[in-house]
Fold each of these.
Amino acid sequence: MESPGWERLQSPVSSGRRSEAGFNATISNCPMPIAKTEVQSVLLNAQTIKRRVRSLGKEITRDYNGRSPILIGVLRGAAVFLSDLIRHINLELEVDFIALSSYGSATETSGQVQLVKDLESSIDGRDVILVEDIVDTGLTLNYLVSNLKTRNPASLSVCVLLSKPSRRKVEINIDYLGFEVPDSFVVGYGLDFDQQFRNLPYIGVLEG
Ligand code: IMP
Ligand code: MG
């Protein structure tokens, strides 16, 4: 297994213990761990992610030359990706966030999504880039794209770090894609399982 970079970049987190396999999330005040989930393998290491995010930033810089887009991050998963991405975009830009709640199991959305935090800015007449962590079934992005289109943006493009094409239930047009990933549940670099693992500097596959 490639070094996850955890040793170099992070110190141990109090709510969990590290194991050789990766980050071992347990509930700290509980004498007997009731849930133990570990990262099984590193899918994309920090260096690989960094290189790809830099090149996505360059592409966006080139495509939006002369314009001032507004990047909309989908909370909470896209926060890490968005914050790295904007530092590779050499344009005047704005950032806003939107948050959805979705019903479903721990690892799958049902498609019944609800807006829990709306944008602070109007996107009327603006060039909008929607930034999401991962497209799985596509139901979440499908909802968001339709919702944002009703607000009359000048343009709307979609930038996604990860895509699991084999899981798609609705077609999504992705303008900027970081990586295609296999059908496994992945965590790290903003992506969570039960709100854990967002702070990993790499993207790993959870043991299942
Ligand atoms: P979709 O609506 O099925 O496309 O699901 C998209 C949302 O589900 C993403 O924004 C993530 O929050 C979550 N999700 C889907 N797959 C994963 C995964 O492998 N790891 C972490 N979150 C995921
Ligand atoms: Mg999400």
Amino acid sequence: MVSGIHDQLTEVILQALPPLERKWWHTATIYQVYPRSFCDLNGDGIGDIPGITSKLDYLKALGIDVIWLSPIYKSPMDDNGYDISDYRDIAPEFGTLADFDRLVAEARLRGIGILLDLVVNHTSDEHPWFQESRKGKDNPFRDFYIWREPGAGSAPPNGLKSAFGGPAWTLDEPSGEYYLHLFSRRQPDLNWENPIVRREIYDMMNWWMERGIAGFRMDVIDYIGKQPDSSLVTDGPHLHDYLQEMHRETFGSRNILTVGEAWSATPGSALLYSGRDRHELSMVFQFEHVTQAWDETWGKWRPKPFDLVGLKSVLSKWQYALADDGWNSLFWGNHDLPRALSRYGDATGYPVESAKMLATVLHLLKGTPFIYQGEEIGMTNAAFTAIDQYRDIETLNMHRLHIEAGLSPEDFIKGANENGRDNARTPMQWNTLAYGGFSTVPPWIEVNPNYSTINAEAEVADERSIWNHYRRLIALRKSHEVIVYGEFQSWLDQHPDVFVYTRTLDRERLVVVANFSSRDVALHLPGELHCVGECLISNYEPVTSLGESISIRPYEAFAVLTRVE
Ligand code: TEU
Ligand code: CA
């Protein structure tokens, strides 16, 4: 009787939650291009849009569905384009609107969509809105930004800090007021409480969608509801109202992909952003697997040693939390993070094996995978030895501040070598020509000298390469529903070296086993995992059966597709 009621209740709950509507981006793989460092076609040392267009066949061969472009808008490039001075034009060093339209059209011919980076938490200080705003308290654009009276003794209004170091407030002498900038002083924060600001942004988004883009990646979107007077930056009281309004006013009626960057995201807030009845975003980027490895005091400049048990617990937590609602994004790297292979793999001892292992683990999880340019050919961290090789505003600011605060220059460079943003920003390595074929002149940032062995041309040609492994994984997601929708379960959570998880859909089950260490590991598998099946992918010889004890080699990873009765 009791169980009868329970069954009825379960039935009611299941009916209340309709099955997940299938979306094109569930099976998609996204490739991030950092335009400045991808391909320089006109020989000025800076990557450009015609350069990206010239590489579309390369991306098509890899099999990706969408290109996320880091910002290409007009910008003084204080933060490499995350400081926009005109939302409706292209930076001249990257090309023209005609070049952009051609990229969209050529990509579409190859079945590839273009995702734009929407940077609307702040603009450049050279944006006409800010130029007007700073003219005085009575200017009609004053309220486009966040201005406050000085605190006691003309100090900043409060202690809010910029992500790039120092106070988040800068005094503007003529009016005697401070403006807010949660990033550089050249990136003033927009005032989202002003409905005219929101209207301008929505109009601009619609303008780009009319040009045929496939969606938006939204920069620090968790900041837009900030309440600076109470030092509240993320998850402000109106954040989700704004996103629902944006959805209504812009992309709600279109079949596009939206992904919000949200360093503050928790599984709970991710369900608010991406829950099926929320009418907000397709998904968010969360960063728990990144920040859990940062030092409490020195942050990313003094990273903790790699800890697989911790990493597995974060990844699994997110898989479970968004199992029935919401959607995960999956990534190891981006333009702000170190190279995945250097961070999580073994770039010197087992570069090929560990790069393939990392790809296998990520691409067989539930969610939409993002590949950062160069990851698919095994590019590694920059290994700069002197501060003057770095270009990134964050690294250069933090260098000064950390040394003032007592970190030794050697320790800072060590931290920057591990976690600085320029690691991901060295030019794409295309071939063995000078500058890795990225440019014909010295690029804006040094090329990693390992381009002579690590480059796209060699990778594409080699059937057993990292690149070809990525190509297979991308194709598997298209041919096997269990990879897209299968239920996730992790096993052997406390094992320090090996990640084992399963994906189950109806009678199909995928068993994924991955060794994160450079040792041979003898593994005891629970009875539920013993099976015979088909090996979908591996980085040594194919594995088709799993028994009580198996032995796995350094960075070995494979997936066995089997049936459960
Ligand atoms: O990044 C947000 C952000 O918070 C990062 O700056 C992050 O704090 C840092 O890398 C970690 O130390 C986005 C963009 O991805 C980044 O490139 C921009 O610089 C930033 O916003 C400002 O637009
Ligand atoms: Ca160029």
